[in-house]
Write a structure and sequence with these properties.
One of its GO terms (molecular function) is ligand-gated monoatomic ion channel activity. Keywords: Signal. Residues 1-26 form the signal peptide. The protein is an alpha/beta fold. The chain has two domains: 36-121 and 219-256, Periplasmic binding protein-like II (D-Maltodextrin-Binding Protein, domain 2, 3-Layer(aba) Sandwich), CATH 3.40.190.10; 124-217, D-Maltodextrin-Binding Protein, domain 2. The chain has ten helices and 14 strands. A six-stranded mixed beta sheet has the order 7-13-9-12-10-11, sandwiched between helices. The chain has a three-stranded parallel beta sheet with strand order 5-1-6. Strand 10, helix 6 and strand 11 (167-171) form a beta-alpha-beta unit. Helix 3 crosses helix 9. The longest helix is centred in the first third of the chain and has 24 residues, at 3-26. It is elongated, with a radius of gyration of 24 Å.
């Protein structure tokens, strides 16, 4: 092989390597989002009070407001793409949207296939009691021999059954067991801390929030496709800024009546 041919081959290799570097850099999600000027956000759009259609048909809710605030910090516009929960992770992996902002709990299983932002909200299992009930159940242990209402198939169903001695009653959904609780057919009910204020308010039943339950806590983050370190840094910087300037606390107080930007236990 002549020196000229070797030089040409080496030149080609360097060009390919350089193009590969440029391509890899351009492929970071942050570059794509910045060039597009739009952050594509996947969510259900049917999950009040997190993301749902208001009377005017527009999306609203806690997660919608968080997503708008994050997009603003990135200097781009939000574009919401609604999809069913069953396909939302697959949609993210297929590139139909850049992130999911839909109460996605950070779990080791999900972290194996997706990257996550730092948590923007913390949830926990919490008891619901009647307003006129003077008893104060401080834990699931206090409910041994008592009737506890939960949604069938929920995480809280499993949590309640993990404590022997509780008479766990399962229901299709929250409206049914909240009615039974108000009518004294249950001693307490169990649901997500972030849902409680909304459920109690919309049910218009004489109920109150009870104690937080240990073992039911979870951190909620923003997932995106792996291999985007610049985007990951930008998202975390945006959320840190929203925590420091009080935006996340303000939004959680507005939607839930409590600060959900900090861990509960």
């Amino acid at each position: 092989m002549s020196k000229l041919i070797k030089a040409l081959l080496l030149s080609n290799v360097l060009c390919v390597a350089l193009l590969g570097t440029v391509s890899a850099h351009a492929e970071d999600l942050l570059s794509a989002v910045k060039q597009r000027g739009v952050l594509r956000i996947g969510l259900e759009g049917t999950y009040p009070p997190f993301d749902y259609r208001g009377p005017d048909g527009k999306l609203e809710g806690f997660d919608v407001d968080v997503a708008k605030a994050v997009a603003a910090k990135l200097g781009v516009k939000p574009q919401f793409i609604t999809t069913e929960w069953s396909g939302i992770i697959a949609g993210l992996q297929a590139g139909k949207f850049d992130v999911i902002v839909n109460q996605v709990a950070i779990t080791p299983q999900r972290q194996q296939v997706l990257d996550f932002s730092q948590p923007y909200a913390y949830s926990a299992a919490q008891l619901i009691q009647r307003k006129d009930d003077k008893r104060q159940f401080k834990s699931l242990e206090d409910l041994k021999g008592k009737k506890l209402g939960v949604s069938l198939g929920s995480n809280y169903n499993q949590l309640a059954n993990s404590v022997p001695g509780i008479d766990v009653k399962t229901y299709p959904g929250a409206p049914e067991y909240l009615r039974d609780l108000a009518d004294k057919r249950l001693d307490a009910a169990l649901n997500d801390r972030l849902m409680l204020a909304y459920l109690i308010k919309t049910s218009q039943l004489p109920l109150r929030a009870g104690a937080l339950v240990k073992g039911g806590g979870e951190a909620v983050g923003i997932p995106f496709r792996k291999g985007n370190p610049e985007f990951a840094k930008a998202i975390d910087t945006a959320l840190s800024s929203l925590k420091q300037d009080g935006t996340l606390k303000k939004l959680s107080l507005h939607w839930f009546g409590q600060d959900t930007s900090k861990p509960t236990n």
